[in-house]
Amino acid sequence: MHSLSQEIQGFSLTRLRKQVTHVTTVTGRRLLERRNAEGDEQVEQVEELDQGAGYGFVEDKSLDLQVGVVRPFLLLASQDAAHDIETLCKFKVSHVLNVAYGVSNLFPHQMVYKTLQILDLPDTDITSYMEECSTFIDQAKEQGGVVLVHCNAGVSRSSSIVIGYLMLREGLSFDDAFSQVKQARPSSCPNPGFYQQLQNYECKRPQNPF
């Protein structure tokens, strides 16, 4: 029977199987890591990084042209829809309420625009913009037009404005307004600060808006 020390002395690195490990880095490079019999590590790149490859994620370059019809005169969407003339014509948009930051208005000779550069930050006072935005939406409605409300992604700022409009002008509760907006555009999701402000806004808004 051999002792442990004898086993160790008789052990040879050459008896080890060569190891090969496939590695994909966060920048998308694919590598082969090899360890030879002497224990030395060798790294070989087996696939070049594609131009435009993401850093640990796949970049989605598809346009978001989904338009949520909240009311026949009130639409909710992203900047992609607001910049696509075919989509605007399809939904008979006449007015555009742009509440994004740094997003231009592309069709000033064809649409009536109102721009409020609102930051999508939880501590931004979103309710302070409700009356001004609601007045613009009312103007579009009174003129027989259709207003598209958009921010960058059509998720937080614009959805909050539309929810606030339904609460302020139609007297809906926050839960009802949020549910209707969510049904029209499923991606709608006010940031946590806006969400809390809108819940509090329900307590402060006039009980009989008309």
Automatic annotation (TrEMBL):
Domain Tyrosine specific protein phosphatases: 127-196
Pfam families: DSPc
Boundaries of every Tyrosine-protein phosphatase domain copy: 66-207
InterPro entries noted in UniProt: Dual-sp_phosphatase_cat-dom, Prot-tyrosine_phosphatase-like, Tyr_Pase_AS, Tyr_Pase_cat, Tyr_Pase_dom, TYR_PHOSPHATASE_DUAL_dom
Any one GO molecular-function label of the UniProt entry: JUN kinase phosphatase activity
Gene3D superfamilies linked: Protein tyrosine phosphatase superfamily
Record's keyword terms, sorted: Hydrolase, Protein phosphatase
GO cellular component: cytoplasm
Name listed for the protein in its UniProt record: Dual specificity phosphatase 19b
